[in-house]
Write a structure and sequence with these properties.
This protein is α+β, with helices and mostly antiparallel strands. 35% of the residues lie in helices and 24% in strands. The chain has helices at residues 7-17, 58-69, 82-91, and strands at 20-25, 28-32, 37-39, 46-50, 73-75. A three-stranded antiparallel beta sheet has the order 1-2-4, covered by helices on one side. A two-stranded antiparallel sheet has the order 3-5. Helix 1 runs parallel beside helix 2 (58-69). Bound molecules: zinc ion (ZN).
């Protein structure tokens, strides 16, 4: 049994944590953690949300994403991380 959620629910949590959601295609999304942070669930800077079987499967895809996002964020644990270096180059404040 898998939990279901809406894109709105996921966005609410993503916004609260300071992340951002990129729409790569109709059934394909990428959720970025804030710069320098990773999603605690699997130490990744970006979580992919995608499904292939039509819109009826979207609630389960978002539900799965929400379940993983609920673990929150933590500082990137990787030394010489390409993603973080890229952020430094682009962001540079
Ligand atoms: Zn990193």
């Amino acid at each position: 049994m898998s939990a279901k959620a809406s894109r709105t629910q996921v966005m609410r949590l993503v916004n609260k944590l300071g992340g951002s959601l990129d729409e790569l295609g109709a059934n394909n999304f990428c959720i970025d953690a804030p710069p320098g942070m990773v999603w605690s669930c699997d130490d990744l800077h970006a979580l992919v949300v995608s499904w292939h079987q039509g819109d009826g499967f979207a609630p389960e895809a978002w539900g799965d994403a929400l379940r993983r996002l609920k673990y929150g964020i933590e500082p990137c644990p990787f030394k010489n991380c390409d993603v973080c270096e890229e952020n430094c180059r682009l962001g540079g404040s």
